[in-house]
Amino acid sequence: MGLKALTRELHADERPQLLAHLLALDEEDRRLRFAHALSDDGVRHYVESIDLSRDAVFVVTDANLAIVGAAHLAREDGQAELGMSVLPQNRGHGVGGALLERCTARARNWGVRVMFMNCLVENAAMMHLARKQELKIAVSGAEAEAFVRLRRADLTSLAADAVAEHLGLFDHAQKSYWLALQAQLPP
After folding, report:
1. Under CATH, domain 8-184 is a member of which superfamily?
2. Model pTM greater than 0.85?
3. Are 115 and 104 in contact (CB under 8 A)?
C-alpha cells in the first residue's frame, strides 16, 4: 500500500464492491462499525440507501482493487457524520487515518462546521484513531461521540481534496492496468 494509503471517491456503480467489503467484516467488527448487530440484509439495505448525490464514500483498495477500508461521510443540516471500516488485516497501516483526513477535507469544502462519528466505547481502534487525529470525545454510557469543529474551506482544504482524489484515481488506474495485463498473460 505504500507509505500513505491513497483514497478515492466511490462511484455509484461500485456499490457491489462496498457491499463485499462490509460483508467481509465479521459479526463483531460489524457490531463495532454500526454500533449494533447488522445482518447481511441490513448491510445490503445500508449500502443501497447511501445517497451519493448528498454524501460521499471514500475507499482504499488493495492491489486487486478490493476495498480494504471505507468511510461514509453523510451530511445533513450543516453537520457531517462519519462511519468507517477497515478490514482487520489492513489495520495499523494508515488506512483509517487517510480516510479520516480525506473526510475532514471534504466536509470543510462542503461548508460543514462539525464532523462527528458515533462509536461504542469498546471500539478501541476508532477511539485510538479519534484521539490520534485530535477529535474531542464525549462518552455517555457504552457509546462515545468523537467530533471536531472544522475551519472554513480554504485553498489548503480544496487542494488536499483534489490532490487526494487525483492520486487515488491514478492508483486505481495503475492497479486496473496491472490486473488487465495479468489477465492477458498465459497461465
Report:
1. Gcn5-related N-acetyltransferase (GNAT) (3.40.630.30)
2. yes
3. yes
